[in-house]
Amino acid sequence: MKKKKTKLLTPTWILKGYDSEKDYNKTKGIDNKKRTGKTFKIRKCPKCDSDDVGVVVGKEKTGEWGCNKCNWKGKDINETKMNEEDFMKYLDKRGEEVS
Q: Each residue of 19-31: pLDDT tens digit?
C-alpha cells in the first residue's frame, strides 16, 4: 500500500506578508538561535535558597526533597536551568574545583 504524499504548507511569514522569516520572527519576538551545549539543572531549597538538597531516602516515589542545611522537607523544590557557560560561572562563584 502506497503512502499518500503530504501537501507542502506555505510558511506563516509569507502568508502574513513579511519579506523574510527573519523579519517575521523579529516582529513576533521569536528567538530561533540554536542552543548548543548541555543544559544543567540547579535545585535549591525554597526556604533558605541552599543548593545542598536531595531526595529524601524512602520517599523517592513520592518525590519528596530535603534540605541538608535547614532541614526543610517538601515537594516544591526550586529548579533553575542553565547553559554550560552559566553553570561554569556558577561553580566558580561557589569556589568549586573544575577540572
A: 988 888 888 887 7
Please give the Cα distance from 61 to 88 (Å, whole number).
31
- The class (CATH top level) of 42-99 is mainly beta
For residue 45, the Cα-to-chain-centroid distance in whole angstroms is 18
Q: What are phi and psi of 8, to 5 degrees?
A: -80, 140
Cβ(53)–Cβ(65) below 8 Å: yes
Is 0.70 surpassed by the pTM of this model?
A: no
Distance between terminal CA atoms of the chain?
Answer: 57
Domain borders along the chain are: 42-99
